[in-house]
Design a protein that fits this description.
The structure holds two protein chains of two kinds. By secondary structure, chain A is of the alpha/beta class. Chain A has twelve helices and twelve strands. The radius of gyration of chain A is 21 Å and the shape is globular. Chain A has two domains: about 220 residues, 3-Layer(aba) Sandwich (Rossmann fold), CATH 3.40.50.300; about 70 residues, no CATH class. Chain A has an eight-stranded mixed sheet, with helices on both faces. Chain A has a four-stranded antiparallel sheet with strand order 2-1-4-5. Chain B is built from eleven helices and twelve strands. Chain B has an eight-stranded mixed sheet, sandwiched between helices. Chain B has a four-stranded antiparallel sheet with strand order 2-1-4-5. The chains are: A alpha/beta, B alpha/beta. Chains A and B meet through helix 8, helix 9, helix 10 and helix 11 of A and helix 7, helix 8, helix 9 and helix 10 of B.
Chain lengths: ~325, ~350
């Protein structure tokens, strides 16, 4: 990519001390995203995707140790003074979390929370902030927005709460929105509406977006690029069509195969991935997926593969036995 | 007397639910959780029950077991009406029906060893010989893919979510039940583990000759294991039919909406911009007539005046809709049901 990235994550690792020893939640991750682009980060629970998003936002638990650089809009967030960081977050760097009930303050009305954000970051007066809030709620598809301003989060449904959280995130026209499992707590019909809403607002505002999810189905039609994480590392990263059609990492293949397909016949056995992810407090010498990988050979157990670009442009993977390549294993 | 139209199965069903009504009081209001639901499950069959949260699918599952007593209606298990049973009679019957829950970790007592957890149903049902109990626990743990020697003496926190669900399945199987209600058994699990558990359930079903009621909100998961699927919305059944047929050719607009909303892991399938379908209304004051009408693109006056009954729209496929997507729009027909 020639244009400078809006966000670039360079060699970021996150270590958490636990009673059982050091837990490396994120291991040497490099990622970047350009203005107006959408990046999907996919992985199962415990793969480090949420810790990575918290590392970007500088919202890690206090005892966590972060190394590496997080460059956003020309500034290194890791070394930014707290005051400037706070101004940045909510203004040009916004986030939507999985559970809107915990991200909204239960004892403040929707209006107070929206207006507060607008006054704080955009220095609007009360009347202007109020009008802007009504516009925002209408934009995210909330009926009767004037009345909603007076309501508390518990008076809204899960889908409506997530719309409010999105309205707050969008309120200051951020350059980057991080959506961490934004629809996991919602029903499937509401999920589709929320994902459409995010896509529409993103296009309209030319905002960059990172969607973090465990569901490959969520990123398939809605992202430009996807990074697959496993055991704290990015194991494959590619433009979205490439990743689905010509994946090189056996984990990506296995993950996609394990999803029940709507067009499969009932009672078709699913190609499950045997075993389970490694214990993050016990680092492995080889590829962390090797014990579950059907293609693994001796090298995979003894040596850690690096994330490298090969084959098509922009397609990186960390594997000694890649599939769908001339040199690798025929899939 | 008006004969309720219900999708029936060939031969004597193992489970027959007739006009089941379950209501919860909330303050001085009533939540209409399950409203006059009728269905049948044949021996050896898996019936999938889908719907969004709050549609009453879990309540229906619990009401079948009489964990929540219905307000009215019947639950006939192997010909016996569970709603009329109490105390020991009901308890004896329940041995033949087991339940698997969504959160496998929360459904295991954290202070008890796995061996004791799985033996508990045996103790309750009067298997007095400890040797015999141990043998049964041993066998069932092996069947669900766990090593009995390594597992029996350990505590639940030592296991992952997927392993805990295997333990829950073992506990459900240890009494050799005929019927298992699986309430969102894989929703809390990761994709790679989910496939393992779904495969295990299928394997156990064949091995133990089980009949399953499989409750879930994920249509693709339901389709993977079900012979027939029932779709529920706000306490009522919208549609029942053979899985493949129902997915290929949904008759109820709600079924079609659910299918359309599933994110497909294929970048070539551009997600259809969802129509403004809004959210389900409250089950405290459900809409008159068809309960889906407030979100339905096909709704008209008739849908608010008259509640649609389930009727056959294609062989073995039943839908409760005045304007079904298939069946040549024979909406004005009185729609006589044909028993198969």
């Amino acid at each position: 990519m020639t244009e400078p990235a809006l966000l670039s994550v360079e060699g970021v690792s996150v270590d958490l001390p636990t009673p059982r020893g050091n837990l490396r939640a994120v291991d040497q991750v490099d990622l970047s995203i350009g203005a107006g682009r959408t990046l999907g980060i996919v992985g199962e629970s415990g793969c480090g995707k949420t810790m990575l998003s918290r590392a970007i936002l500088q919202l890690l638990p206090k005892k966590a140790k972060l190394s590496g650089r997080v460059m956003f809009d020309g500034q290194d967030l890791v070394h930014l003074e707290p005051e400037r960081l706070r101004k940045l977050r909510g203004r040009s760097l916004a986030v939507v979390f999985q559970d809107p009930m915990t991200s909204l303050n239960p004892v403040l009305t929707i209006g107070t929370q929206l207006i507060e954000t607008l006054q704080e970051h955009l220095e609007l007066d009360g009347q202007a902030a109020r009008m802007r809030s009504v516009e925002l709620l209408a934009a995210v598809g909330i009926p009767a927005p004037e009345q909603r301003l007076m309501q508390y989060p518990h008076q809204l449904s899960g889908g409506m709460r997530q719309r409010v959280a999105i309205a707050i995130a969008l309120s200051c026209e951020p350059k980057l929105l991080i959506a961490d499992e934004p629809t996991t707590a919602l029903d499937v019909t509401i999920q589709a509406q929320i994902l459409d809403l995010l896509a529409r607002e993103q296009r309209r505002r030319h905002m960059a977006m990172i969607i973090i999810t465990h569901d490959l189905g969520v990123v398939a039609g809605r992202t430009d690029e996807v990074a697959v994480m496993y055991a704290g590392r990015v194991v494959e990263r590619a433009p979205t069509p490439d990743l689905f059609k010509k994946m090189h990492m056996p984990y990506t293949e296995a993950l996609l195969a394990a999803i029940p397909k709507i067009d499969a016949r009932p009672h078709t056995p699913l190609p499950a991935i045997s075993g389970r992810p490694p214990d993050p407090t016990r680092p492995t010498t080889g590829c962390s997926f090797a014990p579950r990988c059907r293609y693994a050979w001796a090298q995979c157990h003894g040596e850690k593969p690096r994330l490298e670009e090969a084959g098509s442009p922009g397609h990186q993977f960390a594997c000694f036995r890649p599939i769908n390549t001339a040199a690798g294993v025929p899939a | 007397m008006m004969q309720p139209v219900s999708p029936s199965v060939a031969g004597a069903p193992l489970l027959r639910v007739e006009n089941l009504v379950v209501e919860y009081p909330v303050g001085n209001k009533i939540v209409h959780a399950v409203s006059s639901v009728s269905l049948e499950i044949a021996r050896g069959e898996t019936l999938g029950l889908v719907g969004e949260s709050g549609c009453g699918k879990s309540t229906l599952g619990r009401a079948v077991l009489q964990l929540r007593r219905p307000v009215s209606g019947k639950v006939l298990f192997d010909g016996h009406d569970l709603t009329a049973m109490q105390g020991d009679t009901l308890r004896r019957m329940r041995r033949r029906v087991q339940l698997i829950f969504q959160d496998p970790i929360a459904s295991l007592n954290p202070r008890r060893r796995i061996g004791d957890i799985i033996a508990e149903p045996l103790v309750i049902s009067g298997v007095r010989d400890p040797k015999e109990r141990e043998q049964l626990v041993h066998d069932v743990l092996g069947a669900v893919g766990l090593d009995p020697e390594l597992v029996m003496g350990r505590l639940p926190h030592e296991f992952s979510g997927g392993q805990c669900q295997r333990i829950c399945i073992a506990r459900a199987l240890v009494l050799s039940p005929e019927f298992i209600i699986c309430d969102e058994p894989v929703s809390a699990l990761d994709v790679s583990i989910r496939a393992q558990i779904l495969n295990l359930l299928e394997e156990m079903k064949t091995r133990y000759g089980l009949t399953l009621l499989f409750i879930a909100h994920d249509l693709a998961v339901v389709k993977a294991v079900s012979d027939r699927v029932a779709v529920m919305y706000l306490g009522r059944l919208c549609e029942v039919g053979p899985s493949e047929q129902l997915f290929a050719q949904p008759a109820h607009p709600y079924t079609a909406l659910l299918i359309e909303a599933i994110p497909v892991p294929d970048p070539d399938v551009r997600p259809a911009e969802s129509v403004a379908v809004g959210e389900p209304p409250s089950p405290i004051a459900p809409p008159s007539g068809c309960r889906f009408r407030t979100r339905c693109p096909r709704a008209d006056q008739r849908c608010s005046d008259e509640m649609p009954e389930l009727r056959e729209v294609a062989p073995e496929q039943f839908a409760a809709c005045h304007h079904p997507l298939i069946g040549a729009g024979q909406a004005s027909n009185n729609g006589e049901s044909r028993s198969i």
